[in-house]
Specification:
Blueprint (H helix, E strand, L loop, with lengths): L11 E3 L2 E3 L3 E3 L11 H12 L4 E8 L9 H12 L4 E7 L14 H20 L4 E6 L4 H6 L14 H19 L4 E6 L8 H14 L3 E4 L9 H6 L7 E4 L7 H7 L5 E3 L2 H5 L3 H6 L39
Parallel strand pairs: 3-4, 3-10, 4-5, 5-6, 6-7, 7-8, 8-9, 9-10
Antiparallel strand pairs: 1-2
């Protein structure tokens, strides 16, 4: 039976932010200068290909106001908006690849980090981005603060779950106070991690929403069924949920949306292989899709080499429209 993909292309209102469809280009480190010509072209290509929301890769909050200015960021946001996509950017507390444990941070450094998030969000708002996304997933520092196994602090940022939530909630609160209702706040969280399970993450998700989060981005959020872990959160939060995990394969994204397990689907490596996947699916051009072979040769493979990511299946001109 042919898959009915129409649910992928239904619009969604995220507060005052309309998104044209349910497909999200997630934040993937590209090893490009996001405000350089190559970086802007990369993200414009993702928007041109038909994704309804494009989230720019994890970007250190330390760079905002120095390397990253309102003018340079506005060029990036405009390139995404030009093709009708919502523009978001993921905010990371340190540089990509830097390892910082909760116990390494002094109270003064925590205060500085919160202030850096506040400043970054204001710059993104002024640059006309639609949303920012604190990165609290995948074992990085904000995720470590939530983890009972990794957070060994004995002050107000460690111990019981309310304390382990504190830093993330203070960051979200600072962003909301800085930008008011002018910017949507996404938050990326790994629902199952070091020493905790999804049922431990649900109160955290509820607290994030109460503090000001507009979209919960759960990564990874698929196990045996598409979007099944994300679906555990749906009855407990009132905001849209992004699910991640092979959503471009075999109608998995369609099933996650139709079964009510999520509201948005993030598609990563498939959009590297073919950023035009959304438009080709919408137009029924299935024979023209360049399918991700999951070889990881030039996407994940280029990261440790510090080289711009690509796809082994591209021709010289990249993926074809």
């Amino acid at each position: 039976m042919a898959i009915d993909y129409s649910v992928l292309f239904e619009p969604l209102e995220i507060g005052p932010l309309p998104v044209k469809n349910r497909i999200v280009c997630p934040p993937m480190v590209t090893m490009r200068n996001i405000v350089g010509e190559d970086g802007i072209a990369w993200y414009e290509r993702m928007a041109q290909g038909g994704a309804g929301t494009v989230i720019v890769e994890a970007t250190s909050v330390r760079r905002f106001g120095t390397e990253l200015t309102v003018d340079s960021l506005r060029r990036l946001a405009e390139a995404i908006h030009w093709h009708g996509a919502a523009a978001a950017i993921q905010l990371f507390p340190v540089g990509f690849g830097q390892k910082v444990a909760p116990a390494d941070l002094s109270p003064a450094e925590i205060d500085l980090m919160i202030e850096q998030y506040r400043r970054a969000a204001k710059l993104c708002r002024d640059a006309e981005f639609d949303a920012v996304e604190p990165h609290g997933a995948h074992g990085y520092v904000l995720n470590q603060f939530f983890s009972p196994r990794q957070n060994k602090r004995t002050d107000e940022y460690g111990g019981g779950e309310p304390n382990r939530m504190r830093l993330a909630l203070e960051i979200v609160r600072a962003i909301r106070e800085a930008v008011g209702s002018d910017l949507r706040i996404f938050y990326r969280h790994t629902p199952r991690g070091a020493g905790y399970q999804p049922e431990d993450s649900i109160p955290f998700a509820q607290a994030l929403v109460k503090t000001g989060v507009d979209v919960l981005d759960l990564s990874p959020s698929s196990d045996k069924q598409p979007g099944d872990i994300a679906g555990l959160f749906k009855p407990h939060v009132s905001v849209p949920i992004i699910t991640v995990g092979d959503m471009a394969c075999d109608g998995r994204g369609v099933e996650a949306l139709r079964k009510g397990r999520a509201d948005l689907i993030a598609i990563g490596r498939q959009l590297i292989a073919d950023p035009h996947w959304p438009n080709k699916v919408r137009q029924g051009r299935f024979d023209e899709i360049i399918h991700c072979a999951k070889c990881n040769e030039l996407c994940f493979g280029n990261l440790p080499k510090g080289e711009p990511i690509a796809c082994a299946q591209w021709d010289e001109g990249g993926a074809r429209a």
